[in-house]
Amino acid sequence: MKRGLIILVLVISQTIGYSQYLSVPVMSDHKPEAGSRVKVIPEDYQKTEVYYSLYLPENYKPGNTYPVIVEYTGNEWPPSGSTGEVKDANLGYAIAKRIGAIWLVLPYIQQGRSVTKWWGDEVETVDFALKNIREVCENYGGNPAEIFLCGFSRGAIGVNYLGLYNDKIAEVWLGFFTHDHYDGVREWKGTEWGSPIAKYRQAAKERMGRLRGRNCLISQNIEEGETSFETRNYIEENSFDSLANIRYNWFSMRKVIPHIPSEAVPHSHTDKWLLYDSEYAETVYNWFLETIQSKPNTYSISGVIRNSKGKPLKGVVVESSTTHFAISNKDGEYRLEGLTAGPKKVTVFDRGNGSLRLSKEVYLEAPIIGLDFMIGHR
Length: 378
Fold this sequence. Notes:
- An eight-stranded mixed beta sheet has the order 1-2-4-3-7-8-9-10, sandwiched between helices.
- The protein is globular and about 70 Å long.
- The longest helix has 19 residues, at about 120-140.
- It is an alpha/beta fold.
- The chain has two domains: about 20-295, Alpha/Beta hydrolase fold, catalytic domain (Rossmann fold), CATH 3.40.50.1820; about 300-375, Sandwich (Immunoglobulin-like).
- The protein is built from eight helices and 18 strands.
């Protein structure tokens, strides 16, 4: 009897794999609140179909700060169940829930509409990201020093293709997480940006140069070929691993999600795998927490802001890029964190008087302490 029980337990354990333990909240039209996911239409797009989705963590309280997980979705591809739409994103939710982060899913934009195939207008898509990430940080306590970019499939390519599109947006991120595909690995025939392969890879190499030593986690389902090892070979053969702290997370999707295909998960090429409890999901969560803790190859600038009489000034905005900003406290102190090495222009301005702006230029290769400012007429 005991032997039969043991055999039964083994069979069941091998059959069911890991169980799903999370469901992504349905997007609503309500106002943002703790534990909910809402649709946000930016003011500039009120008369269009363009929106982003915003999730605030369950422990959210106004006045506190939180990491931010920014996500780009995959292409519309019916065999996998991927619609390419913002509302149907899955990858970032489990991470946000686990580490207590804000989750922001951004669209790809073309002439006032969201597109479900590739990038739309690349410049508009990138500018939309920059403006709305800043607003989420300002309005909901996103920590400018702890902003991550993640993506699945098209979105995985977009992590570098869009996230490292130029120096301005490349400066935003603390870390980069991709699942299934990677920028520069294979040719995308029929596109101007991804073909021919030599031209595509040269552009991808330039984007990789903007990583500037930050953390990257590359995740890949390996059961349907050797594409994951193609990614690793591509990175190592070109010495791209010297440009960033790169880690890999290879696994067979069928070890994580049982019974593929199913109505919920019709294909192993899926962004739903983090909704299932697994050791591979734990690898992802730990990578995010470790990156937040160590912030590798990023630096800080700090100082005090005073008026002409030497009095510390509270509420002054200090910024070094579109999304890296801080507000001086009651002692006039500010601290910018998560900045990459290189030349920086630090600007301070009084929100009550926009004409009061001062800037200083520095070269950042180690933490800078004591970059003080004096603002007159206040």
